[in-house]
Design goal:
The protein is mainly alpha-helical and 212 residues long. It has a 3-stranded antiparallel sheet. Helix 3 packs parallel to helix 6, helix 5 packs antiparallel against helix 6 and helix 6 packs parallel to helix 8. The chain starts with 20 loop residues before the first helix and ends with a helix. The relative contact order is 0.09.
Length: 212
């Protein structure tokens, strides 16, 4: 049976792929921010007021979805300013540099790598440090993830993947698929030829017609 949905890979770096469910979900993650000017008719949409025509006063603190923050952030007009989520601030960057493997990335934010890359779209003096931490975190966790995926054949892996970011979970699944494919090849199962469902259904239909 063919799959109803073929997964689309998320975008890379600063780019998003809006055909990817992961990128769509990531774009809904909230960013703390501040209104640098009054925002007319946005109070209700952002949970700041009761009426659809209410405005958000200048200086108000906001929780803005990433997609909207990117649309409203303009360095020239200063519509809103955004703050770094705590996991990307200096205190947490120190934790990652000490031992990134101890951090439960899924609990802190299921799209740590993708969301962090999107933060680089905003003007921030800490952007180089954020980018370096994201890269080093990925490097330091990658080997352990792949080692785990290669040593968990036919085992319950729920505890292993519970602490992983969504990108890391995809890597873990890819590693397990590679292991399973290799095991099938070793057993001589990789080269077996089977009839397609279309041919099987045609044969059944032809057999029924013959009986009639």
């Amino acid at each position: 049976m063919s799959e109803a949905y073929f997964p689309v890979s998320p975008g890379l770096g600063l780019e998003e792929n809006f055909l990817s469910l992961d990128d769509i979900l990531m774009s809904q993650e909230k960013l703390p921010g501040r209104a640098e000017s009054a925002l007319p008719r946005l109070a209700f949409a952002l949970g700041q007021g009761g009426g659809s025509g209410d405005a958000i006063p200048e200086g108000s603190k906001l929780e803005v979805p990433l997609w909207l923050a990117k649309g409203l952030h303009d360095s020239k007009r200063r519509i809103i300013s955004v703050e770094l989520p705590k996991i990307y601030k200096e205190a947490w960057r120190t934790v990652f540099s000490a031992d990134a493997n101890v951090v439960d990335l899924h609990k802190m934010g299921p799209y740590y790598y993708g969301f962090g890359s999107q933060l680089l779209n905003f003007d921030n003096l800490e952007n180089p440090d954020i980018a370096q931490t994201i890269l080093q975190t990925f490097i330091s966790r990658f080997r352990r993830i792949m080692d785990s995926s290669q040593n968990a054949y036919n085992e319950d892996t729920s505890a292993l993947v519970a602490r992983l970011d969504e990108l890391e979970r995809a890597l873990f699944r890819a590693g397990q698929k590679g292991l399973n494919d290799f095991q099938c090849w070793e057993k001589g199962q990789a080269s077996q030829i089977t009839a397609s469902s279309l041919v099987q259904n045609y044969g059944k239909r032809k057999f029924t017609d013959t009986d009639d």
